[in-house]
Design goal:
heterodimer; A: alpha+beta; 7-stranded mixed sheet; 27 helices; B: mainly alpha; two-stranded antiparallel ribbon; about 5% strand
Chain lengths: ~725, ~575
């Protein structure tokens, strides 16, 4: 779903919302919101009184009519706010639905796999007839009909329908890139996919449901706030209902519409009317950031997070270590080290290996003739090596967890590169000595946060290039390559912001503690977990949670799934495996792990918006008391006019102005409810001071000004 | 207003500030059991009553024990009052107390209200006074403190260990009485006796005055009851005139100690609270919010009373304050206390849910009378009753943290514990009781003939009287505005029920809140945590109490004291 930016008051959305505002008057719907339900009952009651007055020829019909109208407007405005928030989601859901046409799929016979794609037998079926476990074939140009797992083939896939990102991604069987989403499009090659969801349960279906709010349940904070607001409503119900006996005691009486007007003004209609809009808008803001939250609960939890677990690679650092220096051992020329290091790295397709090739080229001009585009060359295979060394003499020694080395055997020369201790062992096993200088260099690089990669060679006697043959086939250490982890720009500032909000960041890395500490220092994280295995991550989450903290993390691999499920906020990358996506409670469609920080900020903003409008709503009451109470008893006790500090024109204008203000403030605050209050990372005390000033003090002062202004206007247009 | 008046208010405030820390530290030791200097007595009591002091009670059992104890002791008092005529220590041969009166009095003293629709000297035998009323003065105070301590434990304890358990009610009850209330009473009572508060079992003295008139001088064991009346914020006087009576409160010096005794424990409890939750600055923040209300109330009441009634001045009465003339509004005030100490006493006794009076609140100017009324309507949280003030204030803090806590962008956390639906529910139930009970019953009485029958004044002043009576009984204050005849079937019953509702309908949800909090884990504090210390928080707390508690009563108040004050300015009184 391309998250287009919509204007806040997009005309089609507004039109639909106006209609919905009336449809939502259904009492069965209204009863979910106790505050507005009271207003609905009050409006209906006032209307009955109005009807009685009209039929019975009562006085002040015009006044009662206006009260009744504005009470109805109050309900409608609140419904409109909710409809607006939903409308934005609905419009997005419609876009999604439109992208999901009546796709056809090529269903395969389950037994008939393993052949060439053009030889496979398939039948064309409608996407809606695909069931879990079915196999389907997708060839270039095909829309993938449903969510699935690639079991065969590699293909580039256009996922822009889901992510909005136009660059195609690679999907292949096995590993962490095997999940495909229905609605995306195969651009090249072919895929055999096993369907993993039945129709109606696919990712897009769930997304549509989430966006439309069909599955929206009240979140914990929303429930608690609703209880508070209902409690306040009951308290004010007592305050207003007992006014009639008090008035009778004072030999006066209060008109029922006026009592209802007072009640509606006092109960927290502002927050009551906007509460559900704020929640829906919070989910919507996540979607604008291309994050799908599986529930409102998780959005709220994001605001509460105390600890962020961030994978070093790809989140804090650019994701690939880059060679920045060759450090030769005594007696070895730097040029020679670079040459050998490059040779050892030629078939190495990892970004690190590639960077060694590039550095050697840039620094020493090595193999300039064939490595003009070193990276690409390596990517297509071993062409460069093939030129330098006859192919029959080339053998690539792949990296393995056991040896922790890689290298090449070419023309009788064995080249190895790898971790210091692994290479040292190899050198000793092959009769060589490890120079003392090596240990010092390795440690210096490690301490600086880099990764030392030791390069060694062994030449068989009488074979290979005779430039500097090692004697008797003994191995020797040539030097060390300094691989540096490059920290992404601006990370330190972001972590400072998080720290200001009281959030601790923990970097997770497989590096050794020395390296991890240096990178942690450079990036500015609060803590790190080095040499981390998946179970260590899990243990860390449990430990933090046992200490009363909420933990957020991102993950994409299947081995991240348990930790994603355990974390309070688990953001799965859309590029990740199905298991990871199932385990997390949010999915980032952009697969950008750094976005966790934005997710937290959106969660906080949602809660702040609720709190601020609650405070505003409650603070409003002061002015309304001063407007309505003197007006209500103007006939019984003219002396009470001393409380009419706003000097409102007449009792009628005062009551009407309060009701109108109360209704209009809902409309005026819709943009704020949908956008959220301004958020700037700061300590809680600073945020509190600011919001209290704006919404607390503002909530006290604004209605005084607003009611007075409306009063003046009412007199001007002779409505009272 | 005089410099001497302000000075006395200032000295009183300073004394309250100074006693807070030492007494608070002592109370911490009382309730964690480290103050063990009466251990043998304590053990004996547990042994005799079969209490297992190590039994840590879940909140439901804690509440159950509290209710059971209250019900049993209330029944006992009812029976003793009904059988008073047949019981010893009754030199005046006072008959049994009428059933409705006995019910109301038993309810009133059990709930720490001590509302009295009777004259002590003409209704209660020495036996009833000493074994029942004084007994309740101790244990109803100890029960209030116990419940407050239980709430504090609920906040302080880790959920994984406490699992909803709050301590043992019986142990807290015994310790509060044995280590705090009894020793403090014994410590302070010599001051009263030395100043002239009487303590004897003699029959009333018949004497002939200088003018030759016959007069009966009531006697009795007054001092022993007087000190706990103040220390336990009970307020039930031995005599009808309460602390205005020269045998209860003979001098300005006893007046000072009476007021000091009222605030002593409620103020110290805030320090105990801060210490027990390991956040002393929060304890002081709570104290500061309480003090802010007290200072505002005392200043307003003093100003209103010293200013007096403008109608007097208009009629040519000399209301100026001179060396010989106290000036202002002296109606209903004792000359030996004067305006400042009467206003201060009225504020202290209503802030702290005590209810003892040394002047007639009914005779205050409307504004001066509004202050005591509003003090109670704030929820008796301005220092408040012993224990009740602290737990009432903590409930307000929980509401404040919830309303404003969202504004910092997190699920509101109070001292590391998340405030969620169940906690808000209990806090709102607690907050609902007050307006529901006071407003409903006042409204009912303002229109029912039975309610209007006892009214001494018409117009807004009459409404103030009814409102004050129900506010005082629901708030478990017990001070009377007077002017309303409360010893009728209607009012005896209504007031009795109202005191019970105002006590237990609030205590139970509060204990539930404590239990829920005691199930929660404690999240560590960070820069993102809502701050519950400092000026900003205190301001916020004051604002929430004003808006949630006081504003609810604004419509009722505007038809009572507010309009009365305005009308007085226009030359009309009631």
């Amino acid at each position: 779903m391309a998250a287009q930016k919509r204007a806040l008051f997009d005309p089609p959305i507004v039109r639909r919302a106006i209609g919905d505002a009336f449809r939502k008057l259904d009492p069965r719907h209204m009863v979910r919101n106790p505050v507005m339900f009271v207003v609905l009952v009050g409006s209906a009651f006032t209307t009955v009184v109005l009807a009685r007055d009209v039929l019975g020829g009562g006085h002040a019909v015009g006044f009662t009519l206006q009260i009744a109208l504005w009470l109805w407007f109050t309900v409608l405005f609140a419904n409109f706010a909710e409809a607006m928030a939903e409308g934005r989601g609905k419009a997005q859901a419609d876009d999604l639905r439109a992208s999901r046409t009546l796709t056809q799929a090529k269903r395969l016979d389950a037994s008939d796999t393993g052949g060439e794609p053009d030889k496979l037998e398939f039948e064309l079926v409608l996407a809606s007839s695909l069931r879990k476990g079915d196999l389907m074939l997708c060839t270039p140009g095909d829309i993938i009909a449903s969510d699935g797992e690639v079991i065969e083939g590699v293909a580039s896939v256009d996922e822009s329908a889901i992510t909005g990102e136009s660059a195609p991604v690679i999907r292949e069987s096995g590993g962490d890139r095997s999940a495909v989403t229905g609605g995306t499009k195969v651009l090249s090659d072919y895929l055999v996919i096993r369907i993993i969801s039945n129709p109606g349960e696919t990712f897009i279906d769930r997304m549509i449901a989430l966006i439309e709010g069909a599955q929206r349940q009240k979140t914990p904070n929303e429930i608690a706030l609703t209880i508070l607001l209902s409690g306040l409503t009951i308290i004010f119900l007592f305050a207003v209902a007992t006014l009639q006996p008090f008035a009778m005691y004072s030999h006066g009486s209060a008109a029922v519409p006026v009592l209802i007007a007072l009640l509606v003004c006092l109960i927290p209609t502002t927050i009551g009317g906007l509460l559900s809009a704020i929640g829906i808008a919070g989910m919507d803001r996540m979607i604008q950031h291309n994050v799908i939250a599986m529930s409102g609960r998780s959005v709220e939890a994001a605001g509460d997070v105390n600890t962020l677990l961030l994978d070093k690679t790809g989140t804090i650092t650019l994701g690939n270590r880059q060679a920045v220096e060759f450090v030769p051992m005594p007696g070895v020329e730097e040029n020679y080290l670079a040459d050998r290091a490059q040779l050892a790295s030629l078939p190495d397709e990892t970004p690190e290996g590639r960077s060694i090739v590039v550095l050697a080229k840039e620094k020493f001009g090595l193999r300039g003739r064939v490595l003009a585009e070193g990276a690409r060359l390596v990517a297509v295979g071993t062409g460069a090596l093939a030129e330098a060394h006859p192919p029959q003499h080339m053998a690539f020694v792949a990296f393995s967890a056991a040896t922790r080395m890689s290298g090449v055997d070419a023309g009788g020369v064995e080249l190895r590169k790898g971790a210091g201790d692994a290479v040292s062992r190899w050198v000793r096993e092959h009769g060589g000595d490890v120079p003392e200088a090596m240990g010092a260099v390795v440690e210096r690089i490690g301490r600086a946060g880099g990764t030392p990669l030791v390069v060694a060679e062994r030449c068989a006697v009488g074979e290979g290039r005779a430039a500097r043959p090692a004697e008797n086939g003994a191995a020797r250490v040539l030097g060390v390559i300094y691989l540096k982890d490059v920290v992404k720009g601006g990370m330190r500032e972001r972590f400072d912001r998080l720290r200001a909000m009281g959030i601790r960041t923990v970097m997770i890395t497989g590096d050794n503690p020395l390296t991890a500490a240096a990178i942690a220092q450079e990036a500015g994280v609060d803590d790190f977990l080095a040499e981390a295995k998946p179970e260590d991550k899990m243990a860390l989450i449990r430990r933090e949670q046992a200490g009363g903290k909420l933990v957020a993390m991102t993950g994409d691999g299947t081995n991240d799934a348990p930790a994603l499920a355990q974390a309070d906020v688990g953001v799965a990358m859309n590029s990740g495996t199905q298991a990871a996506k199932e385990a997390g409670n949010m999915i980032d469609l952009d697969s950008n792990p750094t976005k966790l920080i934005e997710v937290v900020e959106i969660g906080k903003q949602l809660l702040m918006t609720r709190g601020s409008l609650t405070t505003f709503s409650i603070a409003n009451d002061v002015a309304k008391y001063f407007a309505i109470i003197p007006a209500m008893f103007a006939a019984t006790y003219p002396a009470l006019n001393a409380l009419n500090v706003m000097r409102l024109h007449s009792p009628e204008s005062a009551i009407l102005a309060s009701v109108i203000f109360n209704a209009l403030i809902i409309i005026l605050l819709i943009p704020l409810a949908l956008r959220g209050v301004r958020y700037r990372p700061a300590p809680a005390s600073a945020i509190l001071r600011r919001n209290l000033l704006v919404y607390g003090l503002g909530g006290l002062v604004v209605p005084f000004v607003g009611i007075k202004a409306i009063d003046v206007l009412l007199v001007l247009v002779r409505l009272v | 207003m005089t410099a001497a008046g302000w000075l006395q208010i200032g000295v009183f405030s300073l004394a309250v500030l100074l006693v807070t820390k030492p007494l608070g530290l002592y109370l911490v030791r009382v309730y964690d059991g480290t103050a063990g200097w009466l251990r043998p007595v304590e053990r004996l009591i547990y042994g005799l009553s079969g209490v297992d002091p190590d039994d840590d009670q879940h909140w439901t059992r804690y509440a159950g024990a509290m209710l059971l104890f209250s019900a049993a002791s209330m029944l006992l008092t009812y029976l003793v009052l009904r059988l008073q005529g047949a019981l010893p220590l009754n030199p005046q041969q006072l008959p049994a107390v009428a059933d409705r009166q006995a019910f109301e009095t038993a309810a009133s003293f059990t709930t720490n209200t001590n509302w009295q629709s009777y004259g002590g000297e003409s209704t209660m035998s020495y036996f009833s006074q000493m074994t029942q009323l004084a007994f309740h003065n101790f244990v109803s105070a100890a029960a209030g403190m116990a419940v407050a301590v239980a709430l504090v434990r609920g906040i302080a304890r880790r959920g994984s260990e406490a699992r909803g358990r709050l301590g043992n009610f019986w142990v807290d009850l015994v310790r509060g009485t044995l280590y705090a209330l009894l020793p403090l009473s014994l410590l302070l009572v010599p001051i009263l006796v030395q100043q002239g508060v009487i303590q004897n079992f003699r029959p009333y003295v018949q004497l002939t005055t200088l003018e030759g008139a016959k007069q009966t001088l009531a006697m009795g064991p007054v001092a022993s009851q007087e000190i706990i009346k103040q220390l336990g914020t009970n307020g039930g006087g031995f005599f009808n005139a309460n602390s205005a009576h020269p045998f209860e409160n003979p001098t300005p010096w006893t007046n000072f100690w009476s007021m000091f005794a009222i605030f002593m424990i409620p103020s110290a409890l805030t320090y105990m609270f801060g210490r027990m939750v390991s956040n002393q600055r929060h304890g002081w923040a709570v104290w500061a919010a309480m003090f802010a209300f007290f200072a505002a109330g005392a200043s307003t009441a003093y100003w209103a009373e010293a200013r007096g009634n403008p109608i007097h001045a208009a009629r040519g009465v000399d209301v100026a304050t001179t060396g010989a003339n106290p000036g202002g509004n002296m109606e209903g005030k004792e000359v030996r206390f004067g305006i400042a100490n009467s206003a201060l006493f009225a504020v202290a006794t209503t802030d702290a849910s005590c209810g003892a009076v040394n002047a007639m609140h009914d005779s205050f100017t409307p504004l001066g009378g509004l202050v005591p009324l509003l003090n109670i309507q704030l929820g008796e949280v301005v220092f408040g009753g012993v224990g009740a003030g602290l737990y009432g204030m903590i409930v307000m803090v929980v509401l404040t943290v919830f309303i404003a806590g969202l504004m910092v962008g997190r699920t509101p956390e109070y001292l590391g514990k998340k405030i969620q639906a169940r906690e808000v529910q209990m806090a709102m139930l607690y907050a609902l009781v007050f307006p529901a009970a006071i407003l409903t019953l006042t409204a009912l009485s303002a229109v029912l003939p039975a309610g209007l029958a006892g009214l001494g004044n018409a117009g807004p002043h009459g409404l103030s009287e009814i409102l004050y009576a129900f506010t005082s009984t629901a708030g478990n204050n017990g001070s009377a505005f007077a002017g309303l005849t409360g010893s009728t079937y209607y009012y005896n019953t209504m007031f009795g029920i109202n005191t019970l509702v105002g006590r237990f309908a609030m205590m139970v949800p509060m204990l539930a809140l404590a239990g829920f909090l005691a199930e929660k884990r404690i999240a560590p504090e960070s820069a993102g945590t809502f701050p519950v210390t400092g000026l900003l928080f205190v301001t916020l707390l004051v604002g929430v109490i004003l808006i949630v508690s006081a504003l609810t009563f604004f419509p009722a108040l505007s038809l009572g004291p507010i309009v009365e004050q305005l009308l007085m300015g226009a030359g009309r009184v009631f």
